[in-house]
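for the recovery benchmark. tokens below, seq after
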């Protein structure tokens, strides 16, 4: 794929000689047309993006001023899952600018009126993307390299997640850590086509370097949920974002 993209073009004019012109990459064959209408848009900079295990955590981070959050519930019964999603969506409605995404469970998210859903690459084979778009939900998609970025961008998602940046123990991911150099290249390649979220093993110390890659958001998990004082940690993380974007 990269060999097909490698032409005498933009890569000869950059310090990092790596193809970034999406028009010169091949298309992924055999994909159905992207949903119509297109997915509702997200802000270009989604900011600090905690991924949390239950609705109580959604309420906590929103109360601390976070405005983008993802509920990722694992192992709940169907009834408990619906209660968690409904409670998380209700928490988001208390803040006019809140963006509460639901991981995986797009049917319940649509029924409860969530702001958006986040899906992995494996979900693209089974999820009804057209139904998600018709429901007005924003769609975030995961990616772990060029093929998956091309596959995801074909659907015109509301945002694209890039990762894992570093090794992570919070979720089993088959892809190896991508590192800062690759995330920077991915941001140059995809940044004009969708808001970007970096994810995977990012803590407070690494956050400035990850933000410098060109993404507009960074998703964090244990950096918030495993902190001794999550309120203080969120303030510190938010200050990193403010320092990065106030200087641009």
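predicted aa per position
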């Amino acid at each position: 794929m990269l060999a097909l993209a490698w032409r005498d073009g933009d890569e000869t004019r950059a310090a990092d000689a790596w193809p970034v012109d999406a028009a010169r990459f091949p298309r992924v064959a055999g994909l159905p047309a992207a949903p119509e209408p297109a997915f509702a848009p997200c802000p270009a900079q989604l900011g600090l993006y905690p991924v949390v295990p239950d609705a109580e955590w959604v309420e906590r981070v929103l109360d601390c001023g976070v405005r983008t959050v993802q509920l990722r519930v694992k192992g709940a019964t169907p009834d408990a899952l619906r209660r968690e999603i409904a409670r998380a969506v209700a928490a988001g409605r208390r803040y006019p600018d809140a963006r509460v995404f639901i991981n995986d469970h797009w049917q319940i998210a649509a029924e409860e009126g969530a702001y958006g859903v986040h899906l992995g690459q494996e979900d693209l084979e089974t999820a009804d993307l057209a139904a998600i778009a018709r429901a007005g939900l924003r769609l975030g998609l995961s990616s772990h390299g060029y093929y998956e970025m091309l596959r995801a961008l074909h659907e015109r998602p509301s945002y694209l997640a890039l990762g894992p940046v570093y090794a992570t123990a919070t979720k089993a991911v088959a892809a190896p850590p991508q590192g800062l150099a690759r995330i920077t290249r991915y941001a140059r390649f995809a940044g004009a086509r969708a808001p970007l979220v970096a994810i995977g093993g990012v803590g407070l110390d690494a956050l400035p370097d990850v933000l410098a890659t060109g993404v507009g958001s960074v998703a964090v998990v244990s950096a918030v949920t495993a902190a001794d004082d999550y309120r203080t940690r969120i303030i510190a993380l938010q200050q990193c974002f403010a320092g990065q974007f106030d200087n641009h």
